[in-house]
Amino acid sequence: MTKSATEIMGEIVAAATIDAVVAFKAASKGVPNALLRDLGAVHPNTTVADLPAELRAAIASGVRAAFTRLQKEGYVIAPAGGASPGPNAPPRPRPASRGPGKPPVVEVKRRPPGGGKGPSTTR
Fold first, then answer.
1. Is-contact 9 3, C-beta < 8 A?
2. What is the pLDDT at residue 77?
3. Mean pLDDT of the chain
4. Which residues contact 28 (CB under 8 A, 6 or more apart)?
5. Is the pLDDT of residue 119 over 70?
6. Element (H, E) at 35
7. How far apart are CA 123 and CA 116, in angstroms?
8. Whole-angstrom Cα distance, residue 61 to residue 18?
9. Checking CA distances to 101, which of 52, 72, 91, 116 falls within 20 to 30 Å?
10. Non-local CB neighbours of 104 within 8 Å, separated by 6+ positions
């Protein structure tokens, strides 16, 4: 039976999560406090360089395994925008900038109801 890309990616993400937990445990060397410290140090702005070496290795092997599995299932891995350019292909053009004639984007905040000018003076 053929699996959809969503099913395959779900299995890949689950396997990568389990691999990450095992790598965290290996990095802590069996010390519960070290494991909690390493887990507590992960936040939304954590970079790969901030992670323990064991976890970085698990991520790298997981990514390789994911691409290999997708290719074995018959999916083609290509850069966004089409086929892979050759080694002598010119670089892709960058998206057009705003240009000198366009104004900057300004964020507008709404005032609270009643104008937001302080307490009402009506009696």
1. no
2. 74
3. 76
4. 34, 35, 38
5. no
6. helix 32-40
7. 18
8. 13
9. 91
10. 98
- Write the CA distances from 93 to 36, 61, 97, 101, integer angstroms: 46, 32, 11, 21
pLDDT at 86: 56
- Contact partners, residue 3, CB within 8 Å, separation at least 6: 73
- DSSP structure string for 63-78: HHHHHHHHHHTTPPP-
Q: For residues 20 and 55, is the Cβ–Cβ distance under 8 A?
A: yes
Distance CA 58, CA 20 (A): 6
Residue 64: alpha-carbon gap to chain centroid: 16
Give the span between the Cα atoms of 70 and 73, in whole angstroms.
Answer: 5
Identify the burial level of 72 via C-beta atoms within 10 angstroms of its C-beta, where 0-12 means exposed, 13-18 middle and 19 or more buried.
Answer: exposed
The upper half-sphere exposure of residue 45, i.e. CA atoms within 13 Å in the direction of its Cβ, equals 0
- Amino acid identity at 77: I
For residues 90-98, average pLDDT? 57
Q: Is the pTM of this model over 0.90?
A: no
